[in-house]
Specification:
Elements lengths: L10 H11 L11 H8 L2 E2 L3 H9 L8 H11 L3 E5 L5 E5 L3 H26 L5 H18 L4 H7 L6 E4 L7 E4 H11 L3 E6 L8 E5 L8 H16 L2 E2 H8 L3 H10 L3 E5 L2 E5 L15 E4 L21 H4 L9 E4 L2 E8 L5 E5 L7 H18 L11 H7 L1
Helix pairs in contact: 5-8, 5-9, 9-11
Keywords: DNA-binding
GO molecular function, one term: DNA binding
Organism: Streptomyces violaceorubidus
Length: 395
């Protein structure tokens, strides 16, 4: 027992939970991208390739990664790429759209719209009534087209091409186009989402599409539901972890914890939380496992306090200066190194922390590297955020 009679969940048990709930142990791998996203709640979507790589690392049949992920995103619409926590783009199960919008999006959206109107007023651009007209016209054009680029929408609504000076007279002065700023606002407002890219699955140039219709939920209830789902997938977690992942105020986190009846447990870092009834011993993975996870993977980025799966001395090689994680190599629930793809397509990896990593681990890691290479094929992958080890390995 830990402090206050609470059950203590140590690092080893947390890694066992991670292996199964994050679909990383071999026996826990999923049958579809929908299962992967449902298990993880959200896949980081800032780097388009990372979504497919995160799914592929967790599919039982990795050869289906590209086709099945594109089916889910663009044909069936069972997954959706949209703004979510911390003003970041994620891929969510479409059923979570109203939860994400009500729990997180509304607050960000109000701030972004106010900022746009302020910037336009400072530049002497047209007023809010004008912007509303343009917005309604653009949304109508998008509904007619189904999916469209900003340039295509501007052909239907030429006022989208209007420009205004941002931060005039300051060192970061620039010229903004109405379409760029307005579509961003409409995205965080839950009115539009990213559609099919113009290029391959690694392309960052997306069409826009109307957002799935969804009911408007009570923000408090939506926050409770999002927190419940995330704790089910990632618990235990500290209050600091929860604040970081959601981007909410501490009062919102505490209110949501109370609403779901979260159970307090003891962690090496202090007090943590799990969903009610989830404090009991967790079954460990049936066998040792290795994984090659992409930059911005939701497991590597899932918690703010990471010492239980990532040794502090490894971070300078694996993260960029903004705190974005690069491609990582995992062995039995710990980050032990990183990987990259060279210009000729070869997947290369390096173990940085050899504590407990012997020949069996290296053989398992090499198997995962071959598995990754087999479905990536001739596609070339360069993470959007480059890290020191990734740059070194890919050179």
């Amino acid at each position: 027992m830990g402090e206050g009679g609470r059950r203590h969940i140590g690092a080893a048990e947390r890694r066992d939970r991670l292996a199964l709930r994050q679909r990383l142990a071999g026996a826990a791998r999923a049958g579809s991208p929908e299962e992967v996203a449902g298990s993880l709640v959200a896949l980081h979507g800032t780097d388009p390739a990372a979504v497919h790589l995160a799914v592929g690392a967790r599919l039982a049949d990795a050869a289906k990664t590209v086709g099945e992920t594109e089916r889910a995103l663009y044909d069936d619409g069972s997954l959706v790429r949209m703004h979510g926590m911390r003003h970041t783009v994620f891929v969510f199960p479409t059923e979570l759209t109203p939860v994400v919008h009500a729990s997180t999006g509304r607050t960000v959206a109000a701030r972004e719209r106010a900022k746009l109107l302020k910037n336009m007023a400072e530049a002497g651009a047209p007023d809010a009534a004008w912007l509303t007209e343009v917005e309604e016209s653009a949304l109508a054009a998008l509904a007619r087209r189904g999916q469209a680029t900003a340039a295509e929408l501007a052909r239907d609504e030429p006022r989208l091409k209007e420009q205004f000076v941002y931060a005039a007279g300051k060192s970061y002065e620039g010229v903004h186009t109405v379409s760029t700023r307005l579509l961003k606002v409409l995205g965080v407002e839950g009115k539009v989402v990213r559609g099919r890219p113009l290029g391959s699955w690694t392309s960052s140039q997306f069409r826009w599409a109307p957002a799935p219709r969804h009911p408007e939920l009570d923000p408090g209830e939506a926050q409770a539901e999002l927190l419940r789902r995330w704790l089910t997938a990632c618990g235990p977690a500290t209050e600091d972890d929860l604040r970081w992942w959601t981007g909410w105020r501490v009062t919102e986190v505490r209110r949501a914890l109370t609403a779901i009846g979260a159970e307090a447990v003891s962690l090496d870092e202090g007090t943590g939380y799990v969903v009610a009834g989830d404090a009991g011993p967790a079954a460990g993975p049936a066998e040792p496992w290795a994984a090659l996870l992409p930059a911005l993977d939701p497991t590597a980025m899932g918690w703010r306090q990471r010492d239980w799966y990532l040794a502090p001395q490894l971070r300078p090689r694996l993260f960029d200066r903004s705190g974005n994680v690069g491609p990582t190599v995992w062995w039995n629930g710990r980050v032990v190194g990183g990987w990259a793809q060279r210009a000729d397509g070869e997947i290369v990896w390096r173990v940085l922390d050899d504590a407990g990593v012997g020949r069996d681990a290296e053989a398992a890691i090499e198997t995962e590297a071959r598995r990754l290479s087999s479905w990536v094929g001739t596609t070339r992958i360069t993470p959007r955020f480059r890290t020191p080890l990734e740059r070194e390995l890919s050179a």
